[in-house]
């Protein structure tokens, strides 16, 4: 198979994404050339998904195309950046036009939704591997860092947590609680396979937020990155952890375990100064206050009876919860 | 193997590359944040190298690290851009510290030479695959396009052509002409495994050049891209094709075949208006005028006896030469 990288990328992907004014040279030359507005910096993130590691080899290619781009868009959201351009390095074992067409459709649909243009790529033959680099614009000085959490900040998360983890658990084991209906599984699988990057929320909370991260490895692990880089700790009210109506049906300890420790949520976790809470709440976003930043470098989990579990984040003690 | 992407990338790569003033947020957050000067645009290119396809699985990891980055730097040179930042998506079958250390050494040595900083990356487990995206700065309006060749432009190439092709041919077959010494093979292999991106030449010819491309797929194929996008043809003097002293030792037809049709040279091919030739020659660069742009969309190859071979580039007739 001699894939012509430009024609393949153009045929399936490029012509189906937005055409932006700030793309000076598009696909088809040695480089793409991009214009950054004077008042902005460029935020970039690259992620690789490998078949059999990050996704099941038989996954629906439409949802895989969606998720491959969503992962990067979620990083842009966590940084407070607005999507602009992306590149796609696609390694394929064979040229399966049906697969490729569905994969491209899932990817370009999400790209159009967020006005991000495919500006470059490479296609090679080999084991199925997808690397995507996203580029966003962020007004100078406004980027959301992990390291800027302050004492007494309130901790928020978007959406609901643990849904993707529950869907994955079902795929990987015989776990299938009788409380969950087919409708629940459709919802949970969609949360796993087609996450929604929280770009709209990110732009709205930007002026009020100290620190932010996207939850890709589980709340405790990702909040842990905020705490480590900020030199702080957190007190979390387990009762406040947002659970979907599907996860509310199952055993509470199990649901909380998914919400705290499983990955692939692609929700935002961010901190807000106490005196900005009213402004943030007034935005009426799909977000939930779940705790606050403390000085001691631990994560204190408060259960409904007020009994605390204390995790030592300096020793990467997340596994203790498992 | 649970690779921690940040610690691995930081340990082996990031701390060994330049620290640039224009990197606002370095490795370790959701995105890197980069500052583009007001007078410049950003040129980007992504390339993937797959084990067994683009390189031999047993290749020296130092040279593989060098080449993985050199391929992208060569694209920046072809665009007239100055290197600034790169990202590395590395998929590894296992964590082999000796391999990784040598790979990183080869890559960071070249990065330091060209003042390009590693600002992001992803490490995953899977079949050995290396995706690198390079980012360069190009003064607004000065980017070198493939499509800007004009009638009567003189065609130049840098360095010598076909060396990498000869080295590859030896690896892939029993071909081993008796004229070539061990020293020749050392030279030819180095040309294959450690190409030198022509960034210095690119910056010097920038003001005088209409169209440019880097030669990665063979002179005829890559010059063909210039001709197709410019709607032009070319007359090439085969006598003028620059051959290394090693390739000058072998059968001339064989040497020319490598020079015209084999890949991996990573030299520049560019066109210069006739009235700029004196200025370009005065630069005293390692470049050679090999022909000129004509209106008819063919490639005419003139041999030493003046007998032309005509290639129909509109029908992608490069294979006829093989």
Q: What is the domain total for the residues of chain A? A: 2
Portion in strands of chain A: 25-35%
CATH topology-level fold name of the largest domain in chain A: Phosphoribosyl-aminoimidazole Synthetase, Chain A, domain 2
User: How many helices of chain A?
Assistant: 10
Please tally the β strands of chain A and state the result.
Answer: 13
Largest interface: A-B, 59 and 58 residues
Question: What structural class results from the helix and strand content of chain A?
Answer: alpha+beta
Regions of chain A with pLDDT < 50 over 5+ consecutive residues? 314-322
Q: Using only CA atoms, what is the Rg of chain A?
A: 20 Å
Helix content of chain A: 25-40%
Enzyme class (chains A, B): transferase
Binding site for Mg(2+) 3 (chains A, B): 30, 75, 214
InterPro entries (chains A, B): PurM-like_C_dom, PurM-like_C_sf, PurM-like_N, PurM-like_N_sf, ThiL-like
Binding site for Mg(2+) 1 (chains A, B): 47, 122
How would you sum up this structure, described in words?
With 322 residues, chain A is an alpha+beta fold. Chain A has two domains: 5-139, 60s Ribosomal Protein L30, Chain: A, CATH 3.30.1330; 146-321, Phosphoribosyl-aminoimidazole Synthetase, Chain A, domain 2 (Alpha-Beta Complex), CATH 3.90.650.10. In chain A, 32% of the residues lie in helices and 27% in strands. The first copy, chain A, is built from ten helices and 13 strands. Chain A has helices spanning 5-12, 61-79, 97-113, 163-172, 182-193, 199-205, 219-230, 245-248, 252-261, 277-281, and strands spanning 23-25, 32-34, 40-50, 82-92, 117-125, 129-139, 154-158, 209-215, 233-237, 267-272, 287-294, 299-302, 308-311. A seven-stranded mixed sheet of chain A has the order 8-10-7-11-9-12-13, sandwiched between helices. The first copy, chain A, has a four-stranded mixed sheet with strand order 3-6-4-5. The first copy, chain A, has a two-stranded antiparallel ribbon with strand order 1-2. In chain A, strand 1 and strand 2 form a beta hairpin. In chain A, helix 2 (61-79) packs parallel to helix 3 and helix 2 (61-79) packs parallel to helix 6 (199-205). Chain A starts with a helix and ends in an 11-residue tail after the last strand. The model of chain A is unreliable at 314-322 (pLDDT under 50). The interface between A and B is large, with 59 and 58 residues.
């Amino acid at each position: 198979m001699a894939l012509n990288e430009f024609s393949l990328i153009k045929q399936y992907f490029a012509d189906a994404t937005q055409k932006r004014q700030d793309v000076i040279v598009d696909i088809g030359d040695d480089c793409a050339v991009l214009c950054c507005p004077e008042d902005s910096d460029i935020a970039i993130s690259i992620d690789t998904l490998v078949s059999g590691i990050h996704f099941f080899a038989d996954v629906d290619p439409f949802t895989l195309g969606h998720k491959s781009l969503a992962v990067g868009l979620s990083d842009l959201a966590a940084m407070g950046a607005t999507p602009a351009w992306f590149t796609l390095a696609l390694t394929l074992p064979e040229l399966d036009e049906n697969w490729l067409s569905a994969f491209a459709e899932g990817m370009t649909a999400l790209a159009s939704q967020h006005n991000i243009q495919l500006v470059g790529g490479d296609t090679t033959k080999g084991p199925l591997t997808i690397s995507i680099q996203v580029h966003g614009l962020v007004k100078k000085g406004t980027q959301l860092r992990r390291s800027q959490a302050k004492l007494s900040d309130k901790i928020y998360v978007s959406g609901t947590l643990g849904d993707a983890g529950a869907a994955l658990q079902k795929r990987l084991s015989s776990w299938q609680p009788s409380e969950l209906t087919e409708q629940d599984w459709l919802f949970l699988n969609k949360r796993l396979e087609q996450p929604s990057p929280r770009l709209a929320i990110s732009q709205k909370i930007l002026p009020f937020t100290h620190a932010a991260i996207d939850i890709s490895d589980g709340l405790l692990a990702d909040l842990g990155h905020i705490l480590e880089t900020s030199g702080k700790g957190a007190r979390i009210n387990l009762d406040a952890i947002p659970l979907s109506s599907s996860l509310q049906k199952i055993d509470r300890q199990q649901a909380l375990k998914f919400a705290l420790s499983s990955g692939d949520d692609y929700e935002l976790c961010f901190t807000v100064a106490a005196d900005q809470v009213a402004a943030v709440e007034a935005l009426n976003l799909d977000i939930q206050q779940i705790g606050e930043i403390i000085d001691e470098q631990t994560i204190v989990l408060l259960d409904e009876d007020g009994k605390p579990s204390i995790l030592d984040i300096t020793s990467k003690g997340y596994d203790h919860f498992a």
